Fold:
Amino acid sequence: MEDTLIYNYSKSSSLVKKDTLEELFLAKYSEIHKNTDAPCFFWGNVGQPFILARCLITLSNIVKSSFNLSPFQMALLKDPIVTAGNGMLRFEGFSHCAGVYARIDVLPDALEGEFLENGTTNVDFNQPMITALGSIRPSEKIMLSVGEKEVGLYREDHKLIERKVPLPLKWIKGLGTVQIYLSESEKQHCFNKIQTQQLFRGMPKGVIKSDYYLIVRGNKPVFSPVKSTDAVCIGGLHRLRLLEPLLPYIDSMKVFSHINKQSTTWQLYMGNIRFSFSLSRESWRGFSGEGAVLESLTSEVSDEWIDALDKYAYANQSFNSTMLAVEENISLTKANNLTGRLAAIGLLGYDLDENQFFYRRLPFKLNRILELNPRMRNAEKLLEAGKVEILNSSKERTEARVEGTGVHHTVIIEEDKERCTCEWFCKYQGERGPCKHLLAVKKLINN
Structure:
């Protein structure tokens, strides 16, 4: 199984009742160990347990969904990722096809407790956990524990058994791409609760194969099949139905669009809890295959820098490349390259409201993450085999020839345009990231 990581949880997640108090335990897994003396990441009260439970159930439904895979593939359920630190909790996940990304941000004012450790881990969402979350009533109070907490992982006097869970590598790849898209997105609309519910009530039925457009007529937002000026383009509109269970509880919704229409993001606000929901350009396109992170891999950044920051930074900490350049006395170019590389391997997330990256301490080894970009590996093979020849190069324009299988490809890189004669580039025109020939030429001229 080359596309999964197989690992074991030492315990399963559970929701345990103690008299009138309920305690939620989310089992953690990590293949690296940092601050392992801490029994868990967070332990304390949740200010909006009913809303959080609904958000977690919705996130689980997103994780179990797929819009381009077979029923057999859809049966392989995956588990969300949780990041704890800096006074916040973030739960993240992708649909099975990796074309839908969702994140729950539990803000500091929604939590009252202690962060015993900061970090990121994969969370075990078993069916008993989903059932227990669904039984939480608005008046109930729960304690939330992220990680293992002593011997409390029991339910009704029964010990929950160990589970083997496959984690898709494309999730880690998708984490990098979707954060790049988020950082390149702009807010288009802000709707109140009534406007949002009216918008969703007017959504067409069934699977929608053609593009739809979000427009505002007067004060009323609507989905239209007709393109118009300043409309937000949405591919695979039917995927938005995954948000419908949360609509009764929202205060407002913001809509963000990628500058090149590669994604849309729908952010729901419920008190001190935010729910972000990003859609890829088309239903059949997963974020993991878009190649948005490949540009950042053409400039070398030493693994020592990445490893040092991984040890120094803490979860949910804001990451600012300009401040990094000043504090570490390095050039802004190097700091930006480092930011791109960190995002490319999934160590940075992006907060749209704060308009900045945040650090995500992944529970996976760096060398495993760095091997997830086959186009970049193929570009390096071209360089190693001496198949890249720079014909002429200046600040404004570079022309190169790259040897392929029985053919030579021409690569031209200009200030605001790049081209290649290969089939990949002719098909996608750069929409899904650069081809291996462009990557090889860029890597050669950048290093």
Notes: The CA atoms of residues 75 and 363 lie 25 Å apart. The chain has three domains: 1-287, 294-369, 374-446. Residues 374-446 form one domain. The mean pLDDT is 78.
